[in-house]
Amino acid sequence: MAAYNPVEIMAISHQFQIYGDLQYVAPCKIGHINETYFATYEQGGSTVRYVHQKLNTDVFKNPDAVMTNIYRTTQHQRRRLEAGGFADISRRVLTIIPTRAGHLYYQAPEGACWRTFILVERVKSYESVTSPAHAYEAGKAFGAFQSSLADLGGDRLIETIPYFHNTRRRYDALQLAIKADACKRVSGAIAQINFALKREKICDVILKEMERGRIPERATHNDTKFNNVMLDDITQKAICVVDLDTVMPGCALYDFGDMVRTTTSPTVEDERDLSKVEMQMPLFRKLCLGYIEAAGPMLNRHERALIAFSGKLLSFTIGLRFLTDYLSGDTYFRVHRPEHNLDRTRTQFHLVESIEKQEEVMQKYANSI
Ligand code: GN1
Ligand code: MG
């Protein structure tokens, strides 16, 4: 992460509709893309906290579209919560703090885009699951998120990163990176490259179902990592989901698949001890149960039939992206050590293998709910 500059954050903080005095700022180390800061203010005698975030505009090339999608979807969710009589709505859905000029984000003169949210207090997120209850909460939270957007209405959300989970495109990008071998890293990644090339045929399975109209496009989250679920400190129940940058038209199964990737092995995404990386059925069962309880009524039989497959596909797809980035010189995902993206690739592909071995049992369970 770029060295953080307190003076810059102070200047940024004055751009938003916050009327307290900034006390201190702490950088948040989670996330591979944006820069995130937790800022504490004294406001009329109470302490309040906000999140200031610098959007990575290399990745999110249309910040206006990103913020419009977030605004529309959070407003919709807020209205649903209001209708449901909830008391703690600003903990259950992210609230955008507009700029003093009334915009959803602030563009600094040198081009950087900043936005601000209310910081949700008394919650915690985890880099890996520690119990089946965690997996259940993740499934339930993202399932509820998807179903809350089923009646969004209005125009289609803007596709802010086109072809985001399109495995065929990700596979093609890998092939180009292999050919270019820009950093002379291909020879050190032959095993991972061969692993990927051997599995080409899984790329098109969901794409074809969508093309045939059997699997619908839906408004989805598209980044359903477990660390994007906020669990209440006291109840340990999911209170809200965050990281809404990729909320856009997508496929319900891509969200579910990414949950399988991040909640069914109790390990971190870059775990180097592969003997620990394993898709565990007790975690999958709870994840699946939570998800189907919340989103089941919305899903059709074609979606339901590919529940287990989606876990394999998303682990594969994110692995392809890490590998491509490794071969291209780590230009997309933030890395914290040399070969970090290769480590991440190994972990994802190991998980793919683990799912391959258990896919049938997983699907059988999904069918039984
Ligand atoms: C990125 O940085 P973060 O955690 O928000 C990426 C996701 C990947 C994830 C892998 C916009 O998410 O797609 O699954 O890393 N986000 C984007 O950890 O590319
Ligand atoms: Mg993200």
Write up what this structure looks like.
There is one protein chain. By secondary structure, this protein is an alpha+beta fold. The protein has helices spanning 6-13, 63-83, 89-92, 132-148, 167-180, 190-198, 205-211, 252-263, 281-295, 301-305, 307-328, 340-368; strands at 21-28, 35-43, 46-55, 96-97, 106-107, 113-118, 123-124, 218-220, 229-232, 238-241, 248-250. It has two domains: 6-121, Phosphorylase Kinase, domain 1; 132-368, Aminoglycoside phosphotransferase (APH), C-terminal lobe (Aminoglycoside 3'-phosphotransferase, Chain: A, domain 2). Helix content is 44%, strand content 14%. Strands 1, 2, 3, 4, 5 and 6 form a six-stranded antiparallel sheet that branches. A three-stranded antiparallel sheet has the order 7-9-10, covered by helices on one side. Strand 2 (35-43) and strand 3 (46-55) form a beta hairpin. The longest helix has 29 residues, at 340-368. The mean pLDDT is 96. Magnesium ion binds at residues 33, 223, 243, 245.
